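Retro notes - structure team

What went well: the batch runner handled both jobs without manual restarts.
What didn't: labels got mixed up in the shared folder, which is why I'm recording both outputs here explicitly, each with its sequence directly above its tokens.

Job 1
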Amino acid sequence: MTAVLAVATLLMTAGCSSDDGGSPGGGESTAPGSTASGASPTRQAADDAPPAKGSVKVLRTVAEGLETPWGLAPLPDGDLLVSSRDEATLTRVDGETGKKTEVGEVPGVSPAGEGGLMGLALSPDYASDHMVYAYFTSASDNRIVRMLYDEQKPSGAQLGAPDTIFRGIPKGFVHNGGRIAFGPDKMLYAGTGESGDTGLSQDKESPGGKILRLTPEGEPAPGNPFPDSPVYSYGHRNVQGLAWDTKQRLFASEFGQDTWDELNAIKPGDNYGWPQAEGRSDDAAFHNPIAQWGTDDASPSGIAYAEGSIWMAGLKGQRLWRIPLKGTEASADPQAFLEGEYGRLRTVVSAGGGKLWLMTSETDGRGSPEGGDDRILEVQVS
């Protein structure tokens, strides 16, 4: 794998594959209200870069025996809520002992290919409303729902009926997107795919191949770049990673087709090029990635921010990538960790204190599961 740092933009020249590792087919990032309180414009423009080289230490295996895990949402008490893509269930994992308790099954999920029950997010007001948001593939589309999680009810029957807040995201056997997250502005962001219909990515009337920004009720969020539209950015192929840095700037990972996977700094209203561009382009109409990888080395799903870097889970690449940041640029070559040690890596979530929750994806039909798969790991990073 060869890496070069050219100008302020990083290019990785190694070979990569599309999406979850199957066959092909498939400026400044400023969210509204994102200016950090008390920070001077000069300080914001000149972020301190982390060391060029970091480290990763796996502290423990938190849980084993998970079936097609996809989304992971840390609960306030330190436990973890995990979605099963193919079984359409939510499972609570004890953050200390790893004990697994089924919360309930989400009705209406239609798993197939890369689709099923995917991303999870807790309401910004979870302490008072106990609402869990989920992104899933139905018989007709991809949609986002919210459900009451009542811990007082018996195990397996703790989920209320899903309330669909957004529907009509195109579905396909591949490229269903699926990551959702509440931003620092308490708006709901969703990474979607173009479902294999590449023209949808450039169609601002379609929610496919986009990053969407919604209110918690599923309406287009105030301040979106296009009037009365949920679209926040477009020209994406298949976004499955969303994370914000400490300055509230949004970053997103994206699957390439045959050549380049991407990490992008997201600017509202910008066009990220697909299908006209895969990876860097000389066309000024397209926002270039801050880092790119050959598809054999990445096929990125989830990302998280910790210790001044974006940490990116690689599926086909079977490794955890560290991308150190200076502002919205990569400040040094990305580093790869855990290469091949735990297989396909699906989801990574900040656990605070320089730690991450890292979840594998060997049981998704494209891995080679061994005893104990799939797993959640607790990882210390720097």
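Job 2
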Amino acid sequence: MYNLFKLVRLNNLVMIAITQYLVRFCIIAPILTIKGLSLQMSEFWFAMLVLATVLLAAGGYAINDYFDTKTDSINRPNRVLVGKAFTRQFAIKLHFVLSTIGSLLGIAASFYVGVWQYALIFPLVGGLLWLYSTTYKAQLLVGNLIISLMAAMVPLIVLMFEVARITKTILPVLQQNQITLNAIAYWVVGFSFFAFITTFIREVVKDMEDFDGDAETGRNTIPVAFGMTAAKVVACIAAAVEVAAIYGIYFGYLSVLPTGEVDWLSLSYITLTIAIPFAILLFRIVKAKAPSHYRLTSLLIKLIMLAGVFYTVIFYVVLSNVYQLS
């Protein structure tokens, strides 16, 4: 069972579920409360949406390991599971079962919220993850961008389905009271942007870590195509842009609360858990030489991503203090 959890990256799946629940209850729910509204998607169907997302991701991890066996045997031979702990046939079947169930749940949730077009997302994601593992991962930048987009979709899909359900159930209330959901959209899209850029940085760092295996198996990653120095420059620029964007948004729109007070809690959290770790990250990327150095850098990126996810809790606390939410 332990090896199965490793195959489907249980820790990543847990974080996907936590992220979606935090976006729902710490961003969307309190903003709706301030506007005199409430969540319209039932807890059951939201759980089905989360499960659909998690199962598709798990299926993607399984098929990725299936096609990565040769490369992983060079880069991380002690962590290869397909062909050792599990047969290749098992990995294929597991991918098919998880992706099929995830797609069916997502399709059902789409019809529940009243937007049948959303049903197309889930089989498309499953197919895209297959193509990523078989083709796009070996192409310059394409694989990095696909995985970054998948990460950005994790919070964004919560927004899409909740807004669709709200529009279906209480649209007249919104129109009569001239209520918009722009604030919710801005916040969730902001988190999606954070997920996209941070995941992109991590993908580039992973490519640097996996340079030997990628070069030997013919993968055209940034380090292989342009060299390690160029890859470091790309990762550092992306990190600098992300930190600049976060502080730009904070000082431009968030620093002063509706009460007139400065939001010191958000500023402290951003600085201590995101900006300073990013500075350390930049230093480590520049100094990194051996694969083990990039492994530690990749771990630091995961911690930054975790801090970004849990800023939702800080956001909820700030709103609760300002608007006296119960």
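One thing worth noting from job 2: Residues 142-176 form the longest helix (35 residues).
We'll revisit the folder naming next retro.
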